[in-house]
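Bug report (template v2)

What were you trying to do?
Predict the complex of my protein with 2-deoxy-2-fluoro-alpha-D-galactopyranose.

What happened?
Run completed; filing so the output is reviewed.

Input:
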Amino acid sequence: MNNAIINHVNQEFNKTFNQEPVLIFSPGRINIIGEHTDYNEGFVFPGAVNKGIYAAINKTNNNFCTAIALDKNTKIEFEIGNISPLKEGSWENYVLGVVAELLKLNKVIGNFNLIFKGDIPAGAGMSSSAALENSVVFGLNNLFDLGLTKEEMIFISQKAEHNYVGVKCGIMDQYASMFGKKDYALLLDCRSINARPFKIDFNNYQLVLINTNVKHSLSDSAYNDRRTVCEDVAKQLKISALRDASEHNLNTIKSNLSEENYQKALYVIQENGRAQRASLAMQNNDLKLLGALMYKSHEGLSKQYQVSCNELDFLVNEAKASNVVIGARMMGGGFGGCTINLIDKDKCDSFLTNTSKKYEDTFKKSCSVYFVELSNGTHLLA
Ligand code: GAF
């Protein structure tokens, strides 16, 4: 837990609203493997991390709500009965979207004050958006006794993102952030929403995220486009989602597809298999296989699914060439953000120093390194 942030959020809340808040931590996530498979009803292998969003929330007697993002030093005030997505909005639409989805479900919520701050960068593929959505829905559920289950809450968060932010995301991020378990990754079946926890021990390898510091700015429309391609191919195959496709039946419609769309669908089918194989490799402590699957995943994301960028490819290529990183790949939606790496502990420092320098020389900007631990999902702070 980041006590400095907890204290900051708490003090600002007291100072601004002259009352004690309810405090919530909602984590970001990593994903070991299984990228862009969630909205194809396939498998993903994420876990919550010890970095995320710290939110302070309470009821107010004002006849409007106030929400403040401490990181950005920005604030919105709104009336619950009178909200719509903000055109130029960023974090605001996650908050408003959650409120709108609760209202659609006829949940009765009163006015509230909210202040939040995070220790994960936005747009880095670590799911700061799901963490924020989850903290808001979790906080409102607690304040107004809405009686929602965690599963109901993650779907509210997801719909907020669909309808107020415009990203037709899958359920991985909200699930991992809400249901994360300390020291475990979760093999989530995104069709049944059942997850199998796997205790994670990377032995001699250190889990490290390297942020390209490229924000996925183009990602929203490109993300939705990928989803549309997958849905169209599934329709042509007369199945409800690509999770049910095999390479064999994809090949039966190959002549109807452009090469690009064929490769994208093929990537999803293959990645879905990799996610399941990776969990078995983890169970058998076969880190060599796990790492090889991660490199394959990146290759598919870059060449077939086309959601990588030069900076991500550079970091993964450096990892592969080093002989000290057993597995690496881009993580999350893509077009920027982080790579996830399993680095030999004895050689980790020198690898990171060398790679950071080469990155700076090549791209004339720096990358950032994060060490994260697998942690529990969204919860109240005492
Ligand atoms: C983003 C989305 F929000 C997730 O649902 C998932 O599709 C991911 O990209 C790619 O695996 O984080």
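What did the reviewer find?
The longest strand covers residues 46-59. The first helix runs from residue 3 to 17.
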